[in-house]
Amino acid sequence: MRVLMTGGLGFIGRNLAAYLRRVEKDVTLVALDWFDGASDAEKALFDEVYIGCFAQDDMLALYCQADVVVHLAAYTTVQESIDDPLRSFDNNVVKTQKMLEFLRLNAPGAKVVFASTGGAIIGDYDGAINETVSAKPLSPYGAHKLAVEGLLSAYRGSYGLSSASLRFSNVYGPNSRRKTSVIPAFCKMYFQHNRLKINGDGLQTRDYIYVDDISDAITRVIQQDAQGVFQLGTGKGTSILEIAKIFLSYDPRREVELVHARAMQGEVRHNRADISRAQRELGFVPAYTLNRGIPKTLKWFESQFV
After folding, report:
1. Which is nearest to 34 in space by CA: 57, 17, 63, 56?
2. Crossing angle of helices 290-305/240-250, nearest 10°?
3. What is the pLDDT of residues 51-69, one digit of tens each?
């Protein structure tokens, strides 16, 4: 099986590559990524690595031999999309359309697994988010992810292109030093500044899922040729303040300051996933709690800073 990952040298791509090496006997891993600063060890997770935009002409030919395309490449933050919505739309939607059209014409048997998002697509919602909840995105980022889900549905319905959209909750874990989301940001603050900065009152909640659990879900989708939209998370919402408490308990001897900053524009107040469909159809059961996953993540970050 030949698996091509766009954004493969990023956080999820590198962890997924390591996971697939453990669970798949016969797999060839190909990374496409614009990032040219990856270490030799990071690149060594893959059989082939290509540096450049996933939709540029000289990269598109690489899709022809792929059995599976795991589409991870994107501008990944709400704030980036608010600051420059046209650039975000071009990268996240227009370039994906170009990729899908190439696959339709040149590699129609390839399966596309798309890294989508639940919270940003749905917006504020009082309850667990499942695949049937109406989408009301509060940011261009959420709207752009929703647009790609629509394109995948259209290409599946019109051309038979196999695809699954996986709505990730907040993913965390080792190898996330370049990430800016809450847990990796806290890890860097913890070791670099002995401080945790909380945007807003800290009562906003998220569903946090460890990266190996996400890798397990992606693998199940590939192995079972699952189609359509799947909500992925743990099913539990946790506040930023609760996350901070886990950090404070990691090393009781370390004095860490909590500070509050202004709440971020366009941020969803609460979200958690209803993972019933993934449990039922994929047999997906998250293995990691935050009390298990955050210390493992902190231990990895500690190895980077000490």
Report:
1. 56
2. 60
3. 999 999 999 999 999 999 9
Domains observed in the chain: 2-172+208-235+274-282 (3.40.50.720), 182-205+237-271+290-305 (3.90.25.10)
CA separation, residue 99 to residues 47, 60, 70, 93, 285 (Å): 22, 7, 12, 10, 32
Nearest alpha-carbon partner for 9 in 70, 98, 88, 90: 70
| This prediction's pTM | 0.94
Three-class SS of residue 214? Answer: helix
SS3 46: coil
Residue 299: other Cβ atoms inside 10 A: 12
**Which of 162, 160, 182, 161 lies closest to 171 in space, CA to CA?**
182
Q: Please say whether the beta carbons of 290 and 233 come within 8 A.
A: no
Q: Are 35 and 5 in contact (CB under 8 A)?
A: no
Per-residue pLDDT tens over the stretch 225-238: 999 999 999 999 99
